[in-house]
Amino acid sequence: MGRLSLPRVVITGVGLTSPNGNDLSSFRKALLSGISGVVPFETRHMGPVLAGVCTYDETRHQTKKARRRGTRAGSIGIYCAHEALLSAGLDLAAQDKSRIGVYVGTTEHGNVETENEIANLRAYNDDVKYWSHHHNPRTVANNPAGEITIALGITGPHYCLGAACAAGNVGIVQGMQMLQLGVVDMALAGGVSESIHTFGIFASFKAEGALASHAEAHQASRPFDKARNGIVVSEGGCLYTMERLDDALARGANIIAEVAGYSINSDAHDFVLPLPERQIECMRAALQSAELTATDVNIVSTHATSTPQGDVQECRAVHAVFGGAPDVFINNTKSFIGHTMGAAGALELAGNLPSFTDRQVHPTINVDDLDPDCALNNLVVGKPVELKKVDVILNNSFGMLGINSCVVVKRYAG
Q1: Whole-model pTM above 0.85?
Q2: Which of 82, 191, 326, 332 is buried most, with the most CB atoms less than 10 Å from its CB?
């Protein structure tokens, strides 16, 4: 089946919670206003750390009883799924729920619940009769997606996609593919993360020398800055309502963006260190998939996590692909919210989507002393930049064990 015979796929709804906003409007406002969502946070065994913490209303779309039985990641997913459908102007009761697919990218899942159970067990001399019978359904890999289907009564396919910190993009790609193949008629796709609730992720990054520290929480996440010293671990979620273009037009939907192309590849190199050569290949393949060139792109949303080596490697890759394209502008969202792990790709794309209408490129913040090795052309720092037009956005999202993902979206123009 050739590319030209595949149906076009569009985004018609966005549901999200982030450390600095619980809907797209508030999230976008924070990004344009330079407002960080990173705060001090207490975690088991480590005490005070810095993290991106979400403050959405857990009971807006879920009962307290259901929340107690489930997980934070599931709760985030349920909130985002409901909000994505509302954003799309859809009445779920009027839909064929067997034709809706739920595809949720995750970095990891189950650590939080296992750590909590072990900690609770210590109070009972490790007597396993006090181990929660909810543990298994809470920790299975399909949990967040499964919780969404139970809460919304969706009977179509659901699963999670474990793709490290590329997972948010990978969820979008999966939704697109299933729509194009005709497996579903609507997809709720993106990524979620509850990572801040497991001390293990903080401890591991600290052991690697990759956990951010700073006297001021809101300045801790500082990609491209000389003084960057690591990752700010964050929670969050973003799910998109995705439909085939013909279906969206038939119901008169507001089309937020068209998913034009994508690429996913592997470094096959190292557990942690990225490889610019494969990132270059991934970006170029995504552009080829979208039948676009580097000069067609207006915004590149970087993955840059604020680690010394990772930022430099990505900047080398971005320069190799876009260095000859003078009208491409580059930004970063982790400087505002930290690293939302499995949600990162989806959330960071969402933060840029309003650019299609307001033509603003939100900045990277906390760059007080730009690292010369990260000095990309048209890196937007400190304040937004207004462009004459925004037609194409390329969204980078990379992860451990060498997984790379790029999603290209464009303004729908008929």
Answers
A1: yes
A2: 191
